[in-house]
Amino acid sequence: MSRDNAKGTPGAGAGPFRNSTILVTGGAGFIGSNFIRTVLSRDDFRGTIVNYDKLTYAGNLSSLVDVEAKHGGSKYFFERGDICDGNKLREVIGRHNITVIVHFAAESHVDRSITGPAAFVETNINGTFQLLETAREVWNKRQDVRFHHVSTDEVYGSLGPTGSFLETTPYDPRSPYSASKAASDHLVRAYYHTYGLPVTLSNCSNNYGPFHFPEKLIPLMILNALEGKPLPVYGDGQNVRDWLYVVDHCEAVWSIVEQGRAGETYNVGGECERKNIEVVLSLCDTLDRLCPVTANPRLAGRKDLGSYRDLITYVADRPGHDRRYAINCDKIKSELGWKQRHTFETGLRETVQWYLDNRAWVDTVRSGEYLKWLDQNYSKRSS
């Protein structure tokens, strides 16, 4: 069947992947670990998940301790590996009989891409290429398989004060990060049109929620506030982002894997546009309610603080800072029946409460202790 004839019909296997063995690349990262937990918690999922992660600075297996304890060795397995390593990928995909790949693994921090773009080219472009090549070779034109690629709304560039990104919006990346993700998106589509690899893609807006690495905006602001450190806001704070609670995103990805049409792209957004300064103010207000300055032992004696808002400070804007993102996700809603279950307010409250309740996780991540924990617990079985 030609790709043109296949397009517009459900991909082969739309629905039955709940019994499959799924390779999740970057499964020890923020979104990947939440995805693993989300899928394994579903009553209708009877398959197996293989977490394939290189364990860079943002990969943290302590985020999956509960999953390992409950499902390790039965429905959940961990394989330490680099997506640029074709031999390792080939061996893992073959040994576990992988029939679904959900590709989260990526370098994703814009600031890091500005100071060190080479890693983004290597992981996001070369890594995706190697994963596609390996899947094409091992699956050998099978159509009862699925390769899902997770991307970002940043590939579309920057919006003016109105409008939103559609799946058909032309690409206009502005940073090394978004440029590398745009390149990987093009590769994935090319493998569908050229080789018939059954792929789906999703472009999501800014995620937030539990297990988020502390360098990103929301966890950084929460943790800085709790410690009485400045809350740095880029430029004038008027840059707008669409915020998506991570569990809503994970449920969207699963809907696409199960029901999405092969070769299609689905935008996934929170439909919660907020200016950066509004996000920080909301965080401060939420913390004021859940952990007031006067009840925070770390801030004892700080007479200069009546509210966490007093910690806000403006800093020089970063290069190439896109002004506004907004996602139109009508397609996934109308075709697949997905919708968000969290407002920004409910999601933010859950996120702040999670960080308040999980200081041990935060402390190990920030101190590097989780790397020692990793070596002690996984070095022998994942080498």
Distance between the termini: 42 Å
Helix content: 40-55%
Number of strands: 12
Q: Give the low-pLDDT segments.
A: 1-14
Taken in chain order, the helices and strands follow as HEHEHEHEHHEHEEHEEHEEHEHHHH
Roughly what is the average pLDDT, rounded to an integer?
Answer: 91
Q: At CATH's second level, what is the architecture of the domain at 3-208 and 246-269 and 326-341 and 368-378?
A: 3-Layer(aba) Sandwich
CATH fold call of the domain at 3-208 and 246-269 and 326-341 and 368-378:
Rossmann fold
Fourth-level CATH superfamily of the domain at 3-208 and 246-269 and 326-341 and 368-378: NAD(P)-binding Rossmann-like Domain
What is the CATH class designation of the domain at 3-208 and 246-269 and 326-341 and 368-378? Alpha Beta
Broad structural category: alpha/beta
Sheet having the most strands: 7 strands, parallel
Give the overall silhouette.
globular
What are the main properties of this structure?
14 helices, alpha/beta, globular, seven-stranded parallel sheet, three-stranded mixed sheet, 42% helix, Rossmann fold, disordered N terminus, single chain, 383 residues
